């Protein structure tokens, strides 16, 4: 009770290179001292010179932050831990000019066909200040327990088929991902699947696919699509019997 935090820092989700400020405010019986800490990959360290209520940051990598406040009587409290999530792959034109921190979708889910009993995973991501919260929907109905960037169903059922989309929201508004159709059903028997592959791709020996996704350009904003494209194509080509070599930049 000697020190009371009146304003907690908030988590943010921002593009690399974006500058912003983490804020912490407290009141106590004497003058207060502030010290910020950060944590990356389980290593927590004190930030040199970060001894003010505000912590200016230029986003470089995803990290956790907290602030310690103490008084002259050796009382001390810590603020909430907050996450600064940094997006290195942001599509051209994002964030929009005069961005006020409203949610901006940077990764949309993709259509899938999943075999019954296999896992279903859908993923999306959004920037926002404060960091957006997520809510998934199927066929327009809210999915009560799907409130993360990744929607995960361990054993998919036919009833899980439908049209999925996710809403990212914060205090500045909300934004919706693209809607995608998900089909859960039996796959082709191995013999029919192999026959279909032979019709699409003539038989060959030593089938090798080289995929190169260029993301960083000297005179162009970082792109998001190459990484997801290489990932999706790698999975498809491996299923068709290719030895895949994937390279980025």
TrEMBL record:
Residues 3-79, 103-183 form the Ig-like domain. GO terms for biological process: proteolysis. InterPro entries: Caspase-like_dom_sf (IPR029030), Caspase-related_regulators (IPR052039), Ig-like_dom (IPR007110), Ig-like_dom_sf (IPR036179), Ig-like_fold (IPR013783), Ig_sub (IPR003599), Ig_sub2 (IPR003598), Pept_C14_caspase (IPR011600). GO terms for molecular function: cysteine-type endopeptidase activity. Signal peptide: none annotated. Residues 205-249 form the Caspase family p20 domain. The keyword Disulfide bond applies. Keywords: Disulfide bond, Immunoglobulin domain. It holds the Pfam family Ig_3. This is MALT1 protein. It comes from Nyctiprogne leucopyga. The lineage of its organism: Eukaryota, Metazoa, Chordata, Craniata, Vertebrata. The gene is Malt1_2.
């Amino acid at each position: 009770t000697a020190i009371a935090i009146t304003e907690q820092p908030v988590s943010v989700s921002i593009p690399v290179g974006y500058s912003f400020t983490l804020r912490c405010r407290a009141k106590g019986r004497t003058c207060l001292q502030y010290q910020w800490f950060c944590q990356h990959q389980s290593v927590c360290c004190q930030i040199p010179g970060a001894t003010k209520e505000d912590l200016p940051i230029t986003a470089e990598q995803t990290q956790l932050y907290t602030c310690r406040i103490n008084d002259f009587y050796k009382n001390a409290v810590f603020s909430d831990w907050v996450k600064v999530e940094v997006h290195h792959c942001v599509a051209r034109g994002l964030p929009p000019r005069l961005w006020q921190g409203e949610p901006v979708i940077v990764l949309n889910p993709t259509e899938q066909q999943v075999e019954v009993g296999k896992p279903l995973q859908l993923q999306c991501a959004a920037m926002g200040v404060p960091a957006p919260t997520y809510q998934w929907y199927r066929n327009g109905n809210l999915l009560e327990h799907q409130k993360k960037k990744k929607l995960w169903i361990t054993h998919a059922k036919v009833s899980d088929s439908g049209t999925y989309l996710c809403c990212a929201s914060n205090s500045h508004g909300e934004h919706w991902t693209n809607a995608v159709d998900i089909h859960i059903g039996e796959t082709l028997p191995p013999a029919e699947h192999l026959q279909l592959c032979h019709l699409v791709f003539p038989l060959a020996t030593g089938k090798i696919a080289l995929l190169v996704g260029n993301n960083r350009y000297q005179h162009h904003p970082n792109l998001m699509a190459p990484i997801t494209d290489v990932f999706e194509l790698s999975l498809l080509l491996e299923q068709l019997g290719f030895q895949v070599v994937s390279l980025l930049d």
